[in-house]
Amino acid sequence: MFMNTDTIAAISTGMTSSGIGIVRISGTDAFAVADRMYRAKSGKRLSDMPSHTIQYGFIADGSEIIDEVLVMLMRAPRSFTAEDTVEINCHGGVYAMKRILELAVKSGARLAEPGEFTKRAFLNGRIDLSQAEAVIDVIQAKNEYALKSSVSQLKGSVLKVIRALREKIIYEVAFIESALDDPEHISLDEYPERLQEQIRPMKEELEKLIASAENGKRIREGIRTVIVGKPNAGKSSLLNVLLGEERAIVTEIAGTTRDTLEEEIQIHGVSLQIIDTAGIRDTQDTVEKIGVEKALAYAEDADLILYVADAATGLDENDIRIMDKIREKKVIVLLNKMDLEVVTSEEQIREILNKPVIPVSAKEESGIDILENTIKEMFYEGKISFNDEVYITNMRQKAALEAALESLCRVEESIAMQMPEDFFSIDLMSAYEELGNITGESVGEDLINEIFGRFCMGK
Ligand code: GDP
């Protein structure tokens, strides 16, 4: 495609004080740039040292020593970018790192753009686009499953599936083209039937991948969860228990609308994005507490509804109304206050609402483990296997899969309408290209810039 040969530099670790900071230099002149700023006791130059070694020395600006460092040397093509790369491990002071970066620029490098190292890895053929995107996802992963699915994509799981599909498609295109060129030797008799047989499993595979994107989104962003229940059922108490779980990492993110707050909870690697409608957690004033109506409105967009029922009181019209409204959604009923005398039983609720009911007590903090398992069962059939399953977690990739599927459907239509064979190859070719968008084998420069622009600095 387009070859970059200039040498770039950036601070690849965070811009906060830490034990170690890394300034990364990559490009044709990486070693020459590093030589200008590096001093070894022995007086040797980095460019005389073997690849894949670590050298101890100092970074100096003229006669001024800036820091004591370890330098990692990786010669092309055996580096992340597939270019000559030097990584300077310095002390992680923000000032020290900045000085070293400035010195790298003074010595002939230019400042890297966000994501430029990864972009080069892609442009130099070290990784495909799905792997490059997985790099961003690994960096941004905020739970165990998100990390696992990104790493699997980084290792090439998506690439492998897409490549196999593309190969099958291009084989058919080539066959059609050859037959049209050489009708004497290659016959297209009964070919449409054979092609139809080939397309069916491809479509199934695409459909499976597209379906995985729904889960993929939840893996990445968390399951959007709304807690509903009549006043005093124990919603805030339960939310507090969930948030207070020792293993829960709590972050508060301002919600999309002014009066919602999203609390993120990690349960055994699954993220719940709890939409705390108008702060049910904060207010003790019943009048001010969220009305059932409002919570139900939020519930419409939720992936999961936690309906809190009060075991110590009878079901009232609020309960009936809630149950009626949430019938079509994914719901888990938390039958709370099981520590008190039970007036409303599990069976009573099940008679009205056919959903899992879990007896809990916010007061005694019991039943929460079962909730966790139920959530996993509901969303991931109890497990997520990353060994052979490929998860699409990326909406750009999903859109490309959908477009490819559409093209294959058009091929089927052409077959059904007994169109001439070159019609098949046009749509097969567009499916081929749509899939190429995922791996980056057929993408334009704009898209590439757009994708890599989303990276953080130094990656
Ligand atoms: P909300 O209006 O649904 O948010 O309900 P709250 O969480 O504010 O709880 C209402 C009242 O029920 C409070 O006095 C809580 O202490 C009490 N409560 C909540 N959960 C339990 C429970 O599991 N057992 C008992 N005994 N009381 C509870």
Task: Describe the structure in your own words.
The chain is flat, with a radius of gyration of 29 Å. It is α/β, with parallel strands linked by helices and 459 residues long. The protein folds into three domains: 8-124, Gyrase A, domain 2; 134-216 and 394-440, tRNA modification GTPase MnmE domain 2 (Four Helix Bundle (Hemerythrin (Met), subunit A)), CATH 1.20.120.430; 222-380, Rossmann fold, CATH 3.40.50.300. It is 45% helix and 19% strand. Residues 245-259 and 278-289 have low confidence and may be disordered. The chain starts with 7 loop residues before the first strand and ends in a 7-residue tail after the last helix. The strands form two sheets. A seven-stranded mixed β-sheet has the order 3-4-5-6-2-1-7. A seven-stranded mixed β-sheet has the order 9-10-11-8-12-13-14, with helices on both faces. Bound molecules: guanosine-5'-diphosphate (GDP). Residues 229, 231-237, 280, 289, 336-337, 339-340, 361-363 line the site of guanosine-5'-diphosphate (GDP).
